[in-house]
UniProtKB/TrEMBL annotation:
Superkingdom to which the source organism belongs: Bacteria
Keywords, sorted A to Z: Signal
UniProt organism field: Deefgea chitinilytica
Keyword rRNA-binding carried by entry: no
Gene3D superfamilies, sorted: Periplasmic binding protein-like II
Pfam families: SBP_bac_3
Coiled-coil annotated residue ranges, if any: none
Protein name (Swiss-Prot/TrEMBL): Transporter substrate-binding domain-containing protein
UniProt keyword Signal, yes or no: yes
Residue ranges constituting the Solute-binding protein family 3/N-terminal domain according to the UniProt record: 25-248
Signal peptide extent: 1-23
C-alpha cells in the first residue's frame, strides 16, 4: 500500500512539474479564416467555438494561454515543429503519430455549397465523381476523403481562404465548395466580403454533410504536454454550458 501511495504521489508531482508555470506562455495556434469554428475578428482577436473552449479552460485552471490566429497551413506547421499547440485539429493516422490529442471539443459538420440552379444529389462520394470541389489548403476531411483526393478519385481545388473558395464557386470555376457548419458558416463567409454578400441568393447548401469532423486540441509529442491536455479535458467536462455556434 505504501509503495502504491508513493507511486501515485510521484506521478502527480511529476505531472505538476511538467505543467508550464503561470509565468510561461503557452501558444495555441488557430485558423484565422474558418468561421464559425475559428476565425479572426476585425480587431485581430480569435473568435469561434475553439476560442470559447480556450477561454473556458483559462477560467477553469487560471493557466493563461496565448491564442494566435493565423493561416491553417502555418498553424499546423508551427504545431508540428513544437512551437505551440494547435486547436481545431482533426484526427488521422498520420497525425496520431505526431500529436497528443485532447478529447473532442466540438463536432463540426462539413457541408457542400453549390450555385443555385446547379444543385445535385449528394449521398456518397460516388456522387462527386468528375466534379471539382473547393477545399481548404492544409485541412483534413477524414481519411476516406483525404485518400480519395490523394488517389485521384475526388478532384480538389485547394484555397487558402473561404472567401477565395466561394468566389471561385460564384464564377463557375467549381462545382461545389466545402463550408464549415452549413448555412451558418456560409452566412459568416458571405458577410465578410461585399461581392459575395451582394450575391448571397446565388448559393445553396446541399442537404447531406460531406463529413462529420470531431475537432481537438493537439500538441506535438515532443512538447510533452499531456498534463496540460489532461487539465484541458477536465475543463471540457466541467463546462456545464455546451459549446455552440453563435450566429452573428
Amino acid at each position: 500500500m505504501l509503495k502504491i501511495l508513493q507511486s501515485t504521489c510521484c506521478y502527480w508531482l511529476c505531472a505538476l512539474l511538467a505543467l508550464p508555470s503561470h509565468a510561461d506562455e503557452v501558444i495555441i495556434y488557430a485558423d484565422e479564416d474558418y468561421p464559425p469554428i475559428m476565425y479572426k475578428d476585425a480587431q485581430g482577436q480569435a473568435r469561434g467555438v475553439m476560442a470559447d473552449a480556450v477561454r473556458n479552460f483559462e477560467k477553469f485552471s487560471s493557466q493563461k494561454l496565448k491564442l494566435e490566429p493565423t493561416s491553417w497551413r502555418r498553424a499546423y506547421e508551427y504545431a508540428v515543429k513544437g512551437k505551440g499547440g494547435v486547436i481545431g485539429l482533426s484526427k488521422t493516422k498520420e497525425r496520431l503519430a505526431l500529436f497528443d490529442y485532447s478529447d473532442v471539443i466540438f463536432e463540426d459538420n462539413i457541408y457542400l455549397a453549390v450555385r443555385r440552379g446547379k444543385e445535385f444529389e449528394f449521398k456518397t462520394l460516388d456522387d462527386l465523381k468528375n466534379k471539382l470541389i473547393g477545399m481548404h489548403l492544409g485541412a483534413s476531411y477524414g481519411e476516406q476523403i483525404d485518400n480519395a483526393v490523394k488517389n485521384g478519385a475526388l478532384k480538389a481545388d485547394l484555397s487558402t481562404t473561404d472567401v477565395i473558395r466561394i468566389r471561385k464557386l460564384l464564377r463557375g470555376r467549381l462545382d461545389a465548395a466545402v463550408v464549415s457548419h452549413g448555412q451558418i458558416g456560409l452566412d459568416a463567409i458571405l458577410k465578410s466580403d461585399p461581392e459575395l454578400l451582394a450575391n448571397k441568393h446565388e448559393f445553396v447548401i446541399l442537404a447531406n454533410p460531406l463529413v462529420r469532423d470531431p475537432l481537438h486540441l493537439g500538441f506535438a509529442k515532443s512538447m510533452k504536454m499531456l498534463p496540460l491536455i489532461h487539465e484541458f479535458n477536465q475543463s471540457l467536462k466541467a463546462n456545464k454550458t455546451p459549446l455552440t455556434i453563435k450566429k452573428e
